[in-house]
UniProtKB/TrEMBL annotation:
Organism: Actinomadura spongiicola
Statement: the UniProt record of this protein carries the keyword Iron-sulfur: no
Domain RNA polymerase sigma factor 70 region 4 type, first and last residues per copy: 90-140
Domain of life from the UniProt record: Bacteria
Protein name stated in the entry: RNA polymerase sigma factor
Amino acid sequence: MVHDIGLAEELAQDALVAALEQWPESGVPDNPGAWLMAVGKRRAIDRLRRRQRLEHRLEEIGRDLETRPAPEPDVPDDDHIEDDVLRLVFTACHPVLSTQARVALTLRMLGGLTTGEIARAFLTSESTVAQRIVRAKRTLTDAGVPFEVPEGPDRAARLSSVLEVIYLIFNEGYTATAGSDWVRTDLCQDALRLGRILAELAPGEPEVHGLVALMEIQASRTRARIGPSGEPVPLPEQDRGLWDRLLIHRGFAALLRAKALGEPLGPYVLQAAIAASHAQARTAEDTDWTQIASLYEVLASVAPSPVVDLNRAVAVGRAHGPARGLELVDTLVDEPSLRGYHLLPSVRGDLLARLGRTAEARAEFERAAELTHNEPERRALLDRAAALG
């Protein structure tokens, strides 16, 4: 309404402060969202009265406050996107911004991720991400971008950024980059919900179904990924009886829908196929690592990145022996974007341990523990180092 994302943040914060001050005495209103919206609008009017150059916006907001009834939550609107968060994700992923700026801004504003978490997801510095977010807000304001839901070709043009946002939210939930929890189920559930809604909105987009399939299958392992003391449990050591078979079936169904569309396999469909290969194995020993290594090779050609190469090295190390895997990992040691990435020394340590090079492996696990910001993962890496002598 105010066409300024920074001002909108301040107004929302003002409304929340008013709620914290008033609700303990007056009680929580029947419709908290409408109450907050009304307070935010009144604060907007107060501010805009002091800014003569924005009189036309004052009139628009004031008329809307006086004439429109308070919105009820979860009421469908004409654009058929019935989820408020998903509407905002599409809005923030505007083409006037670069892809990296769109994703960073949306993750910060709507995904619940901190600047540090976004930086680690992009393998870059916090200052770089912070600058992207500040510039993105300024660009949207200077360009006078209307905050509205795109339609038709405009919506399709933003789809890849929206998928990336949902994917990164899920990843942060699946393996928290920092803090005392290994898994943040709230973020996983939010991402799954958004993905499922998006699959209904875009039934002809294979990558949408691929992302949903990937998230469903990955989420099926949640209970098995955490030990009794909250410690992370590696995939080969997980109790597969704890895997959620319903989520696996849903993931397989989404993957079949993606493949049935007959399009070339995109990165999300390929990652879902890798997850499906793991899900099909009744035991860790039954895993078809040769197939997984082949899928990673295709993924590396479709969406090349150092992280994909690292994952491919893991698969090759399982399929063709740790020496082959180590050869691939060693080509990534000098990769600038992986210098602070704790999984590089972690993977290298695992391969070295399997080769019997325990002193080197221990040093790699200790280095990985220094680099990670997640407490359960740090303890697990130090335990692995200690177990080597």
